[in-house]
Specification:
Blueprint lengths: L3 H6 L1 H10 L6 H37 L5 H32 L20 E6 L15 H7 L5 H7 L9 H21 L3 E3 L4 E2 L1 H7 L18 E2 L4 H5 L5 E4 L5 E10 L18 E11 L4 H19 L3 E5 L11 E9 L4 E10 L3 H6 L1 E4 L7 E2 L1 E9 H11 L7 E2 L2 H7 L3 E2 L1
Parallel strand pairs: 2-6, 5-11
Antiparallel strand pairs: 1-8, 3-4, 6-7, 7-13, 8-9, 9-10, 10-13, 11-12, 14-15
Helix pairs in contact: 3-4, 7-13
The structure holds one RNA strand of 90 nucleotides.
RNA sequence: GGAGAGGUGGCAGAGUGGUUGAAUGCGGCGGUCUUGAAAACCGUUAAGGAUGCAAGUCCUUCCGGGGUUCGAAUCCCUGCCUCUCCGCCA
């Protein structure tokens, strides 16, 4: 959420930013409501001041034996008028909020302006020793490998739940678990994040806090009976840990890492893109979340990206880092880097991580503040998060890159102590 | 799921219709005292909003939402959460 005052004072800038993000919002309507709102408040507050004053005098008048019936009648009218104004205010506030909650964050000035993914900027590329894009071996894709080695069973996953719900079996299941544990350990021990294991169902307030609702409702699962949402990412529960809290400046930055299953409806995505692991309704992800002071958030963003890259370098999987353009930037983000790994069978880059700085956009929605040293007013924190990493597409790159000529999978060195085996055959 | 109890400031804990934004204690901050520290004593200690150049003034907030009343932390309804007992259960 943007600051209403900021929008009032920078309406043209906000309009431009929204257009750059390929989004829409009726800023003029918002400003009109804002004006109405303030007018009503002034009117109502004058009456409330009067009511408070007179009400406190009534006991004294009674004590003095005076007749207060006239005053009571007058105050009744005043109170009725106040109720009317409060009702009016509530309605205006609701409309105002409806618009505010749909206004996206403003891109940072280092974000390239662009419309489509083609306008994203490749920041860097990393390949392990001995790797070549021109390798002319015949690469099996992850679906063939999964089937042949009995480690992935998409058919049965679809039978149990539906398409897009992958089933790992045998050494595939072990490998998945190894990957998650390896990533968690690196972030906890090497990068010094504190570990959390969050709930997978959250309430509406949490979904609004991080910006998934109301805008992205169609992409979320919703359990109607209990009004709970299966999380699309651990970002939601972890960032919302500190919703409605005032933190101490000395406790910042806070860095959390946690594993969760992630649930996404992916409404409207069908076809080839959805094959196997490429687009699924449930996947596993290790997520990093940071809550920081505003002045450090862009340094912290670079750190999150490098922490995520560290995993891929340890796994020796080719990847590249993209700086997303304004048009490809998500609703809540001010700046975002994507990390993509190479799939030699698809001959494509696959998104395995997204690292974003939300500045105070989520903090304002979720009311996450911090008390500055020296007793100044609490200010909004900046929040960030990054996948470190999502396993499903990473598994695609891992299986494909580590396959041998005779169709086996060599387990990456760093994972072997987690799997307990060196090869899948 | 059934039966009770309760949710008050950073924390603990008073307060059952009228100067209560809220006693008291602890903690925090500032000061006096001290070579320094402790103790003691004194003072101070919420957030959000409207308005204003500012100082300030005003409004709101005692879990959330409605209601009764001239007036609500206090009464009524409702939602959420916590605790105790019972039942069920990985």
């Amino acid at each position: 959420m943007l600051d209403l005052k900021f929008i009032r004072e920078n309406s043209e800038l906000v309009k431009q930013a929204i257009a750059n993000k390929n989004e829409k919002a009726d800023i003029d309507k918002l400003l009109e409501l804002d004006e109405q709102r303030r007018k009503i408040i002034v009117e109502a507050e004058e009456l409330k001041a009067k009511r408070n004053k007179v009400s406190s005098q009534i006991p004294q008048l009674k004590k003095a034996g005076e007749d207060v019936s006239g005053v009571l009648a007058e105050m009744k009218t005043v109170s009725d008028t106040i109720s009317e104004l409060d009702d009016k205010l509530r309605k205006v506030d609701e409309q105002l909020n409806d618009i505010l909650l749909y206004i996206p964050n403003i891109p940072h000035n280092t974000v390239p302006v662009g419309k489509t993914p083609e306008d994203n900027v490749i920041v860097r590329e990393w390949i392990p020793d001995g790797f070549s894009f021109d390798d002319d071996r015949k690469f099996s894709d992850h679906i063939e490998l999964g089937k042949k080695l009995s480690i992935l069973d998409f058919e049965r996953g679809a039978k149990i739940s539906g398409s897009g719900f992958p089933l790992y079996t045998g050494k595939g299941a072990t490998l998945e678990r190894a990957l998650i544990n390896f990533m968690l350990d690196v972030h906890i021990n090497k990068h010094k994040y504190s570990e959390v294991f969050p709930p997978f169902l959250v309430n509406k307030e949490s979904m609004i806090g991080t910006g998934q609702l109301p805008k992205m409702a169609e992409d979320m699962y919703h359990i109607e009976k209990d009004d709970l949402y299966p999380i699309p990412t651990a970002e939601v529960p972890i960032t919302n840990m500190h919703r409605d809290e005032v933190l101490n400046e000395k406790d910042l930055p806070i860095s959390y890492v946690g594993y969760s299953a992630c649930f996404r409806r992916e409404a409207g995505s069908y076809g080839k893109e959805a094959r196997g692991f490429l687009r699924v309704h449930q996947f596993n992800k290790v997520e990093m979340v940071k809550i920081v002071k505003p002045e450090t958030s862009y340094d912290e963003l670079e750190k999150i990206v490098s922490d995520a890259e560290d995993i891929l370098q340890a796994l020796k999987i080719p990847y590249r880092v993209l700086l997303l353009c304004t048009g490809d930037l998500s609703f809540s983000a001010a700046k975002c880097y994507d990390i993509e790994t190479w799939s030699p069978a698809e001959k494509k880059w696959l998104e395995v991580s997204s690292c974003s700085n939300f500045e105070d956009f989520q903090a304002r929605r979720a009311k996450i503040r911090f008390k500055k040293e020296g007793g100044k007013k609490p200010g909004l924190v900046h929040t960030l998060n990054g996948s470190g990493l999502a396993t499903s597409r990473l598994m695609v790159s891992l299986l494909e890159n580590y396959q041998t000529i005779d169709g086996k999978i060599v387990v990456p060195d760093v994972l072997q102590k987690y799997t307990g085996f060196q090869i899948i055959e």
